[in-house]
């Protein structure tokens, strides 16, 4: 990367836990545990990891949507709004609401019933856009909606149908078009391609890329599908047990993964012409409520050493864009 | 036109079939009970002290059987019964002879309709509004307080609750009358005095229905709202920064209302069977009371008259509900 990119979203040792009270005993689920991220303008950032590693909680936290029993324990979350860095966790509820759609928008998994079943899609548009642009009447709102819908190659009549009349793929595309309606600087996608067949997946991926190219904004996307990441993301963060254990440009992650967990993830992917048996990560992910001491990956790591069992490694900057948190790297 | 052919006509056929079946069952059931209305009448005459010659007795039995329309086999009676019914004639009452069933119902119906329509409307509206708000603001103190109140009232058996009200407000502190639908001797007119009198008499029975019915509606609506609040489309709207009034009105209430609309239609249909316990406890002159006496006396015609009214009421309410439901929920369509 030759030119220095502006940071649009930055977190500083972010910790967000679920504090559950179960019949008197307190249970703490460390879903986001000390995450420091810098996400740039004009890029697609992918977050990858197994089920239950805290991906969705991290997204919700980045989206500044922290509702009990989830709590922000420590750390800071900054958005860059009008070339000024703002600590958004201190904003009032109304200020947070205002930022949604206009500055940062959310793309849900469209296969779920994300649209109000009793109103037409245009009703949903009216609510989502009408809650943010003041003093515009329905016609203007629909004009904004129709423009984006046509730009993205969706049929114009999607506005006039009820959600149950759309296919899963179409619903997913509508959520993406809706998220892009007000030209937000950041779009956050929670598994937007999951539960779709590969043909539809390809269309959805293309659509995300088109929007990003046009708006030159940032897309942060979570999925467990490394194939999708390879296609879409500029940079990838690998998440394990609430921590980002490795972060690098997509090519580096696939070519030279350094963390043993990332290596397992990459090596388990099928390749053309290679018929050898793929190896998966041994064991299963730890419970976020009961993490092992030291590096949370040590019980599953083939290169485990004494220090791994005692202490969490610091994040090492291998080069400008490649960061990894592992004792193997630290000591080398 | 596919709607008429594929949905409406079969639905109407079903409607009439259900009514026919219900009425037929109602025709035969009283005839299967050990109550013989003719013998009952004679017992009553004996109880009053009149002695009868055996010959005169047979004559009376014959006369009564004829007047009650109980001549011939059940098949013949059934045909006769339908012949009268299609003309809207329910026949004569056995025990308030020679009053016509139609007239007896016409006297009792306005009392029941007035009381139950008002009570149902009020308890449904209040229960849903408070339940909806309490379900959305579960963490607020007033919400928990309302919930606690509903939790205490709801499990009370209705007749116990009604008796408590009656004892407290009509006997201990005599704010309300202990029985009746209006003061004795009051002449039904549209004057303010008469209306005031009716309202005063109906207050306690109405209150008992509103409080218990309202508590039920409150609890159901609260649960519904809590469930809808957790739906993905509500969560998504929150993530999209949709304003709270829109989320509450268009997303939560609108969806949570759907089962409650069904509930309202059903309870409106049930009005025609009267409110038996209410009317007995408060001595209210409605359909429930009439039906109770009819059953106790084996008054076939009166039983049938009231039950037919109730069968038609409920089936019609369900028919109307079915036909209008697509207006509330677009996922339901008939084509």
Structure in words:
The complex is a heterodimer of chains A (332) and B (335). Chain A is of the alpha/beta class and 332 residues long. Helices cover 31% and strands 25% of the residues of chain A. Chain A is built from 11 helices and 12 strands. The longest helix of chain A is centred in the middle third of the chain and has 18 residues, at 198-215. Chain A starts with 6 loop residues before the first strand and ends with a helix. The mean pLDDT of chain A is 88. Chain B is mainly α. Chain B has a domain at 107-296: MetI-like fold (Orthogonal Bundle). Helix content of chain B is 75%, strand content 0%. Chain B contains 13 helices and no strands. Chain B has helices at residues 2-32, 37-47, 54-68, 74-85, 101-136, 141-153, 158-172, 192-229, 232-239, 244-270, 276-281, 287-297, 300-328. The model of chain B has no long low-confidence stretch (mean pLDDT 86). The interface between A and B is medium-sized, with 30 and 21 residues.
The Rg value of chain A, from CA coordinates, equals 21 Å
Strand content of chain B: under 5%
Helix fraction of chain B by DSSP (H/I, runs of at least 4): over 70%
- Oligomer classification: heterodimer
- Taking all Cα atoms into account, the compactness measure Rg of chain B is 25 Å
List the strand order in the largest sheet of chain A.
6-7-8-3-9-10-12-11
Strand content of chain A: 25-35%
Largest binding interface between chains: A-B, 30 and 21 residues
What is the CATH architecture assignment of the domain at 107-296 in chain B? Orthogonal Bundle
Q: What's the SSE blueprint?
A:
The complex is a heterodimer of chains A (332) and B (335).
Chain A: E1 7-22, E2 25-40, E3 44-48, H1 55-62, E4 70-81, E5 84-87, H2 93-102, E6 104-107, H3 121-130, H4 138-151, H5 168-180, E7 186-190, H6 198-215, E8 218-222, H7 226-232, E9 235-240, E10 243-249, H8 250-255, H9 260-267, H10 306-310, E11 316-317, E12 323-324, H11 327-331
Parallel strand pairs in A: 3-8, 3-9, 6-7, 7-8
Antiparallel strand pairs in A: 1-2, 1-4, 4-5, 9-10, 10-12, 11-12
Chain B: H1 2-32, H2 37-47, H3 54-68, H4 74-85, H5 101-136, H6 141-153, H7 158-172, H8 192-229, H9 232-239, H10 244-270, H11 276-281, H12 287-297, H13 300-328
Helix pairs in contact in B: 1-13, 5-6, 5-8, 5-10, 5-13, 6-8, 7-8, 8-10, 9-10, 10-13, 12-13
């Amino acid at each position: 990367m030759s030119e220095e990119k502006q940071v649009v979203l930055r977190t500083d040792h972010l910790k967000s836990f679920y504090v559950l009270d179960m019949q008197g005993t307190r249970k703490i689920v460390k879903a986001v545990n000390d995450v420091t991220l810098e996400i740039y303008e004009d890029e697609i950032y992918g977050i990858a990891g197994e089920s239950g590693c805290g991906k969705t909680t991290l997204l919700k936290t980045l989206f500044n949507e922290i509702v009990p029993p989830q709590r922000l324990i420590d750390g800071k979350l900054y958005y860059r709004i009008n070339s000024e860095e703002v600590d958004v966790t201190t904003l009032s509820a109304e200020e947070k609401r205002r930022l949604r759609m206009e500055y940062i928008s959310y793309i849900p998994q469209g296969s779920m019933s994300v649209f109000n079943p009793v109103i037409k899609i245009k009703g949903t548009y009216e609510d989502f856009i009408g809650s943010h642009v003041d003093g515009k009447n329905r016609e203007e709102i629909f004009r904004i909606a129709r423009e984006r819908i046509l730009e993205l190659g969706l049929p114009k009549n999607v506005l006039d149908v009820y959600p149950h009349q759309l296919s899963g793929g179409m619903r997913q595309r509508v959520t993406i078009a809706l998220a892009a309606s007000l030209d937000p600087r950041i779009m956050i996608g929670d598994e937007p391609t999951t539960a779709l067949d590969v043909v539809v997946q390809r269309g959805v991926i293309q659509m995300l890329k088109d929007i990003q190219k046009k708006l030159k904004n940032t897309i942060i996307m979570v999925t467990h599908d490394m194939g999708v990441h390879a296609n879409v993301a500029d940079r990838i963060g690998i998440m394990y047990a609430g921590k980002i254990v490795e972060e690098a440009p997509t090519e580096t992650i696939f070519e030279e993964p350094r963390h043993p967990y990332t290596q397992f993830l990459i090596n388990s992917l099928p390749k053309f012409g290679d018929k050898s048996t793929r190896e998966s990560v041994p064991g299963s992910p730890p419970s976020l409520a009961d993490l092992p001491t030291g590096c949370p990956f040590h019980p599953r790591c083939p290169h485990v050493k004494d220090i791994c069992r005692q202490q969490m490694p610091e994040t090492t900057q291998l080069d400008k864009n490649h960061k990894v948190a592992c004792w193997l790297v630290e000591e080398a | 036109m596919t709607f008429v052919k594929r949905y409406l006509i079969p639905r109407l056929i079903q409607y009439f079939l259900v009514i026919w079946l219900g009425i037929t069952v109602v025709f035969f059931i009283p005839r299967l009970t050990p109550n013989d209305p003719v013998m009952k009448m004679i017992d009553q005459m004996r109880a009053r002290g009149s002695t009868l010659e055996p010959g005169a007795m047979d004559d009376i039995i014959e006369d009564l059987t004829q007047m009650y329309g109980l001549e011939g086999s059940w098949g013949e009676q059934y045909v006769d019964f339908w012949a009268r019914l299609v003309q809207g004639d329910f026949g004569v009452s056995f025990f308030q002879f020679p009053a016509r069933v139609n007239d007896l119902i016409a006297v009792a119906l306005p009392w029941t309709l007035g009381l139950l329509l008002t009570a149902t409307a009020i308890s449904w509206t209040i229960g849903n509004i408070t339940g909806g708000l309490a379900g959305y603001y579960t963490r607020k103190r007033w919400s928990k307080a309302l919930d606690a109140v509903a939790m205490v009232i709801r499990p009370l058996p209705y007749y116990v609750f009604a008796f408590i009200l009656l004892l407290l407000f009509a006997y201990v502190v005599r704010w309300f009358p202990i029985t009746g639908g209006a003061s004795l001797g009051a002449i039904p007119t549209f004057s303010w005095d008469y209306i005031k009198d009716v309202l005063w008499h109906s207050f306690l029975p109405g209150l008992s229905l509103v409080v218990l019915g309202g508590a039920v509606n409150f609890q159901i609506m609260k649960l519904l709202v809590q469930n809808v609040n957790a739906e993905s489309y509500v969560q998504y709207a929150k993530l999209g920064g949709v304003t709270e009034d829109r989320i509450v009105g268009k997303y939560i209430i609108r969806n949570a209302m759907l089962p409650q609309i069904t509930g309202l239609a059903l309870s409106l249909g049930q009005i025609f069977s009267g409110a038996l316990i209410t009317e007995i406890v408060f001595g209210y002159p409605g359909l429930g009371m009439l039906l109770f006496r009819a059953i106790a006396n084996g008054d076939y015609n009166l039983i049938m008259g009231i039950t037919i009214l109730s069968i038609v009421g409920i089936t019609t309410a369900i028919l109307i509900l079915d036909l209008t439901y697509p207006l509330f929920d677009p996922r339901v369509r008939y084509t």
